[in-house]
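Lab notebook, entry 270. We have the chain sequence and a SMILES string for nicotinamide-adenine-dinucleotide, and the next step in the workflow is to get a structural model of the bound complex before anyone spends time on docking refinements. Request logged below.

Task: model protein plus nicotinamide-adenine-dinucleotide, output structure tokens.
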Amino acid sequence: MQNYLQELFGLNGKTAIVTGGAMGIGKGIAISLASAGATVLIADRVSTDDASETMKELRSINASCSYYQIDLTDINKLPALVKKAVSEYGALDILVNNAGIYKYQAMLDMSEDMWDKVLDLNLKSAVFLSKEAATAMKQKGNGGRIINITSVDAMKPVAPNLAHYDASKAALRMFTRSFAKEVAPFGILVNDIAPGGVNTPGTKLIAGENPSAEQLKALEAQTAGFIQMLPIKRFGEPEDIGSATLFLAGKAATYITGTTLVVDGGMLIM
Ligand SMILES: NC(=O)c1ccc[n+]([C@@H]2O[C@H](COP(=O)([O-])OP(=O)(O)OC[C@H]3O[C@@H](n4cnc5c(N)ncnc54)[C@H](O)[C@@H]3O)[C@@H](O)[C@H]2O)c1
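Result returned:
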């Protein structure tokens, strides 16, 4: 049994880049992959100091995990990130495009700047990092996995005032399918995971940067009502997305490409 599970889900000797891994879902994914044996390189924009708690936790699981500070929307800097993984660890086997922002804004009040901010990170950076990663994977000749974190919003506009976000995630979901077709001949499998509501530092900011007691109360009431309607009566946790990523990253998912794994507590069947 032990050997069988190790064979299906073990990631010993594999190297993974997890974007936006300093906190939230990305941190859950990084811990999950490292716990299965992978060496994880977290790529995030926060300072090394701000990432230190996460890195401490991660290095207690696998000492060779490392941190790379980068603003992923600076597309010209993406090749150096992949180069770093290859030169430091010998290869890049897994890329998880997780970093994303969701700033609530009505489309009728949308500025071009806000639209670009969301699309530049959620779509463009993931697309161009996938290109760099797949190029390195193809060169190495051992195949690889690319896992994009999309959202249930890629399939259904769940919350109001997220037209820019929903468009970015739907486009990333279709890119996943299209790119999966292109790189399958090289043994590179590309899938996406669509989370529902997950407890993270990002979702805590939904009520605003400095929410009033009233705003927080309103958000709490809204969340409680939402959980009541959810078939699995709890919010998701970063580990829920971590274990789904682990599945798609390992041997167990060798025959899966170009698809979406929905991890939403049943939100889409509400
Ligand atoms: N939390 C949810 O309910 C939920 C639901 C569906 C999908 N998602 C998706 O999951 C992903 C992670 O969400 P989260 O809730 O953990 O977010 P979060 O805000 O808690 O964490 C996001 C991380 O990305 C990093 N980041 C942001 N912009 C960056 C940039 N330009 N360059 C490098 N790093 C950057 C942040 O520093 C942070 O560490 C996002 O793509 C989000 O759209 C989240």
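Notes for the group: The chain is about 45% helix and 15% strand. Worth checking against the assay data. The chain has a mean pLDDT of 96.
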